[in-house]
Structure to design on (235 residues):
């Protein structure tokens, strides 16, 4: 896709991880955006369900599509657009006070976690000593909790705890319990489906095979078309 080294080195996630792990800056980390672009473009996808943290990678995928089309004078690859299940992209914060929840960071709540596990994880979330003046700005670790609250609770509940913060009467234990209850209620239907499918291994194998066959057919057709556009002889 003719992606340049300088473009990859400017990707925010690469710069952040390279800063955090300077002794392990490998090719996989550097080329991840091109791998994601390949996964998307090989199926000529129109919409891709992603979170806010993947917006730059999605722009890279669109960039790759445009560059290929321009180089070869075709309109083969559509420019894939980000798809959200709400009116905007969401970035789930980490329970350890960091700005992002991630498996590699070890600060995740998994969709298959049972209510007891969810509650235990949320109750361990990082907080501070509490507000010392009314209507003060929330530090990042507290704003993260309120982000959780806004996602899994209604506006009335959010406003209640926001008011408690503003008048310095907030109790973090109560806030965490409310967040845990909201997460459990939000994820329980998904958890039930995961358990249902996990218990039926034959159905899982059937679904996986059908998906793999469909993906293989789609990718093979794209590869064939691209080889013809570039000018490679058929093999």
């Amino acid at each position: 896709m003719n992606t340049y080294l300088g473009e990859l080195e400017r990707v925010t996630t690469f710069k952040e991880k390279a800063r955090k792990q300077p002794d392990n800056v490998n090719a996989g980390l550097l080329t991840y955006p091109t791998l994601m672009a390949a996964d998307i473009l090989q199926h000529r996808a129109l919409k891709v369900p992603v979170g806010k943290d993947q917006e730059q990678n999605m722009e890279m995928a669109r960039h790759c599509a445009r560059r290929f089309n321009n180089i070869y004078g075709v309109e083969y690859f559509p420019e894939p657009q980000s798809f959200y299940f709400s009116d905007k992209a969401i970035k789930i914060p980490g329970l350890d006070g960091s700005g992002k929840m991630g498996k590699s960071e070890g600060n995740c709540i998994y969709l298959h976690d049972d209510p007891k596990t969810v509650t235990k994880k949320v109750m361990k979330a990082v907080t501070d000593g509490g507000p010392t003046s009314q209507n003060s700005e929330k530090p990042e670790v507290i704003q993260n909790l309120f982000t959780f609250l806004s996602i899994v609770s209604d506006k009335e509940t959010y406003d209640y705890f926001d008011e408690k913060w503003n008048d310095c009467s907030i109790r973090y234990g109560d806030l965490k319990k409310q967040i845990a209850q909201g997460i459990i209620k939000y994820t329980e239907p998904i958890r039930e489906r995961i358990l249902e499918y996990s218990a039926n291994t034959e159905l899982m194998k059937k679904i996986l095979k059908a998906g793999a066959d469909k993906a293989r057919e789609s990718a093979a057709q794209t590869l064939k078309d691209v080889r013809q556009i570039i000018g490679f002889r058929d093999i």
In short: Strands lie at 47-49, 81-83. The two ends are 21 Å apart (CA to CA). The first strand starts at residue 47 and ends at 49.
